[in-house]
């Protein structure tokens, strides 16, 4: 029965390719595929034509199971389309519809050609439906995977971008933290800081958390770990920039940061200079009336 | 059995750990250092570990013991040159070695010791270097 | 941290088994794990973590389990690579695993950081132990 259905499907797709393509494109357009302006009509036409051509070839050389080797090219093409749609910002519905809307034109072609053979028609519709569902699922998988890749890459970029270690003075480093700290990011931050301590032979590192929106137990733990690791290497850490609300929250949460803490980066820097045996002195009085 | 050499420079004993520490070697070092502190009257012990690729709880315990023993014998222990990856791992392991002084490299470690030896010369008391 | 059966069906690209009979074996295991961790593309910090965990668990197997062996697997699951270590001994076993995982709990005069520490240093951790039969600890660290 399945073979019978597949046979009918193969015949219809190869004989009525043109009709199916026209109907399919019509459906895609009326379904709003072009409305968002993310894709041009010519491009959509090329995509549809390629996919249908490859579907015909795959059907001709084998059964109607999308896992078969004959479908490798078609799967790749659909994957490529799906990937580019994920990056262009298409919705999942749009992407799934691209393949699913092929059902209707094929069904109507099948009904026309097998109007008198209900048994074959039913079998053919079943195989078509099954095949297109498989292909559509494949598209969705690639779509989601591409999205995940993009998100993963962005996450990594953000992590790298947002953790600069700056040298304030000979042997004094500052690490201005911005944004939320999670375990993955703190790992990167910690490694950057400790490596910079080695590279710069720093005695003191100032961790400025002015740009950190919240400090919960976990963040505090991460910070304490970084500070403990720095101490093991022989460098002292000073925390600066704890905002009043954060200080309040921390106390209420019972979060303890048993480290030297200063209100601002400037205060912390002054302390670091003092600790390394330096003082800042004004060279001349600023008063303009000193004539 | 292999032993790790201990050098004496002024009132300071210097140990550089260059090999992958197996447990017997760690125990031998602990014994040798204890004996040497007592026999030389050293005021400081400097342990350089920049070549160590890992410090597990056994080696960590050895470092802790050496620091505690030398404290009892009136000497100060400074561990210098710990690698970043080793420091992160130790903290994750739960071993923060809070009883041990640390410095970035031998030069800094020696400076810490000298400060103490110098204060000793002046008035016999060695207190915290940093005062706010 | 998950307490799962560590990557039971993950494809293994390379495997070797090393004995744990003496202190020197512990050093050899550390070196072997380092080599495999580099092979799996782990970063320096991750290498150090898994090697340290290996050192703790090998010493546990030696001190409490009377020796045993470790299987070192290099794993590859899609793009993800990792190292899995499986320590086994035929020692007395651990009657109370939860207690043994507690920091500073020790029956052998050590620091008692071995099991809990190894767990914190790994991405995956699994322990099974039967009194009188032995203990098997499996850990994995992924790139």
TrEMBL record, chain A:
A Pfam family of this chain: RsbRD_N
Q: Which UniProt keyword terms apply here?
A: Phosphoprotein
First and last residue of the signal peptide: none
Question: From which domain of life does this come?
Answer: Bacteria
Start and end of every STAS domain?
162-276
Answer yes or no on keyword Phosphoprotein: yes
InterPro entries, per the entry: Bact_StressResp_Reg (IPR051932), RsbRD_N_dom (IPR025751), STAS_dom (IPR002645), STAS_dom_sf (IPR036513)
- PANTHER family xref list: RSBT ANTAGONIST PROTEIN RSBS-RELATED (PTHR33745), RSBT CO-ANTAGONIST PROTEIN RSBRC (PTHR33745:SF3)
Name of the protein in its database record: STAS domain-containing protein
Originating organism: Methylobacterium iners
Phylogenetic placement of the source organism: Bacteria, Pseudomonadati, Pseudomonadota, Alphaproteobacteria, Hyphomicrobiales
UniProtKB/TrEMBL annotation, chain B:
**This chain belongs to which protein, by name?**
RsbT antagonist protein RsbS
InterPro entries reported in the protein's UniProt record = Bact_StressResp_Reg (IPR051932), STAS_dom (IPR002645), STAS_dom_sf (IPR036513)
Give any Pfam family that matches: STAS
Q: PANTHER family given for it?
A: RSBT ANTAGONIST PROTEIN RSBS, RSBT ANTAGONIST PROTEIN RSBS-RELATED
Q: What is the lineage of its organism?
A: Bacteria, Pseudomonadati, Pseudomonadota, Alphaproteobacteria, Hyphomicrobiales
Q: Which PROSITE patterns match?
A: STAS
Task: Show where the STAS domain sits.
Answer: 1-113
Automatic annotation (TrEMBL), chain C:
Instruction: Please report the stretch or stretches of sequence annotated as the Histidine kinase/HSP90-like ATPase domain.
Output: 45-143
SMART domains in the cross-refs: HATPase_c
One Pfam family for this entry, by name? HATPase_c
- Keywords (A to Z) from UniProt: Kinase, Transferase
| Molecular function as annotated in GO | kinase activity
Residues making up the signal peptide according to the UniProt record:
none
Keyword Kinase assigned to the entry: answer is yes
What is the protein name for this chain?
A: Serine/threonine-protein kinase RsbT
């Amino acid at each position: 029965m399945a073979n019978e259905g597949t046979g009918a499907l193969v015949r219809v797709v190869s004989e009525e390719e043109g009709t199916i393509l026209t109907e399919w494109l019509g459906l895609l357009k009326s379904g709003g595929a072009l409305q968002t302006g993310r894709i041009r009509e010519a491009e959509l036409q090329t995509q549809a034509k390629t996919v249908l051509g490859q579907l015909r070839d795959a059907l001709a050389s084998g059964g109607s199971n999308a896992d078969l080797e004959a479908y490798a090219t078609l799967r790749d093409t659909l994957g490529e389309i799906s990937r580019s749609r994920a990056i262009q910002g298409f919705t999942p519905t749009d992407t799934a519809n691209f393949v699913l809307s092929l059902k209707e034109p094929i069904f109507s072609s099948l009904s026309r050609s097998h109007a008198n053979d209900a048994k074959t028609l039913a079998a053919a519709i079943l195989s078509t439906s099954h095949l297109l569902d498989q292909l559509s699922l494949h598209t969705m998988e690639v779509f989601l995977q591409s999205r995940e890749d993009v998100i993963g890459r962005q996450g990594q970029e953000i992590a790298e971008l947002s953790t600069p270690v700056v040298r304030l003075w000979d042997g004094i480093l500052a690490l201005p933290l911005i944004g939320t700290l999670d375990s993955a990011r703190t790992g990167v931050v910690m490694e950057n800081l400790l490596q910079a301590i080695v590279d710069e032979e720093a005695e003191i590192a100032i961790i400025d958390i002015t740009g950190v929106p919240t400090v919960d137990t976990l963040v505090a733990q991460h910070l304490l770990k970084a500070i403990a690791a720095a101490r093991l290497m022989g460098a002292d850490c000073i925390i600066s920039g704890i905002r009043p609300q954060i200080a309040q929250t921390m106390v209420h949460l019972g979060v303890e940061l048993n480290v030297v803490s200063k209100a601002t980066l400037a205060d912390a820097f002054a302390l670091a200079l003092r600790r390394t045996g330096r003082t800042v002195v004004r060279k001349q009085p600023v008063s303009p009336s000193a004539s | 059995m292999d032993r790790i050499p201990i050098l004496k420079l002024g009132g300071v004993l210097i140990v550089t750990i260059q090999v992958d520490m197996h447990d017997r070697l760690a125990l031998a070092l602990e014994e040798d250092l204890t004996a040497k502190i007592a026999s030389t009257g050293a005021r400081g012990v400097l342990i350089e570990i920049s070549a160590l690729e890992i410090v597990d709880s056994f080696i960590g315990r050895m470092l802790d013991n050496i620091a505690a023993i030398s404290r009892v014998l009136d000497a100060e222990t400074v561990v210098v040159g710990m690698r970043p990856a080793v420091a992160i791992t130790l903290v994750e392991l739960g071993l923060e070695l809070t009883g041990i002084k640390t410095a970035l490299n031998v030069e800094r470690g020696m400076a810490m010791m000298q400060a103490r030896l110098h204060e000793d010369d002046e008035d016999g008391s060695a207190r915290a270097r940093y005062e706010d | 941290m998950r307490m799962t059966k560590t990557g039971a069906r993950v494809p293994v690209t390379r495997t070797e088994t090393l004995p744990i009979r003496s202190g020197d074996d512990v050093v050899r295991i550390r070196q072997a794990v380092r080599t495999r961790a580099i092979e799996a593309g782990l970063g320096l910090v991750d290498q150090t973590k898994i090697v340290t965990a290996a050192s703790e668990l090998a010493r546990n197997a030696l001190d409490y389990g009377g020796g045993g062996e470790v299987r070192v697997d290099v794993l590859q699951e899609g793009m993800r690579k990792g190292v899995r270590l499986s320590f086994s001994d035929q020692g007395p076993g651990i009657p109370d695993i939860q207690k043994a995982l507690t920091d500073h709990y020790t029956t052998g005069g050590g620091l008692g950081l071995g099991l809990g520490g190894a767990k914190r240093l790994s991405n995956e951790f699994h322990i099974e132990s039967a009194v009188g039969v032995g203990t098997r600890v499996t850990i994995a660290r992924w790139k």
